[in-house]
Amino acid sequence: MSIEPHGDEREILEGERVRIEHELSDLGLGESGSLSYDPNFADTSQVTAERGEAEVLASELKGTLTEVEDALIRLEDGTYGRCIKCQKEIGSERLAALPMTPLCITCSSLD
């Protein structure tokens, strides 16, 4: 049995996907899926540190983008709002705070 989405989850998730894609683009995420840099960019320790920070941020954004896309798939297949581990309903407050969450609060605390 699936749960009917409450409110505008699809719109929220689609907006989040667009926002993340823009952030990744602004970071310089190339077609290869990695960050691209100007070959004439100075390779000082500060630049290296900034590149490292950008790589971490891009990795986190890509992970969140995957979570958003997975939530959109769950909306399509009618399983959105159910925990992927225990199959119980995810609380509406949790979904409002984390619309892409695949886990109820109980299962999330066990990870």
TrEMBL record:
Q: Which UniProt keywords apply?
A: Metal-binding, Zinc, Zinc-finger
**Domain Zinc finger DksA/TraR C4-type per the UniProt entry, residue ranges:** 78-107
One GO molecular function term of this record is: zinc ion binding
Q: Which PROSITE patterns match?
A: ZF_DKSA_2 (PS51128)
Q: Name one Pfam family in it.
A: zf-dskA_traR
What InterPro entries does its record include? DnaK_N, Znf_DskA_TraR
What protein does this entry describe? Unannotated protein
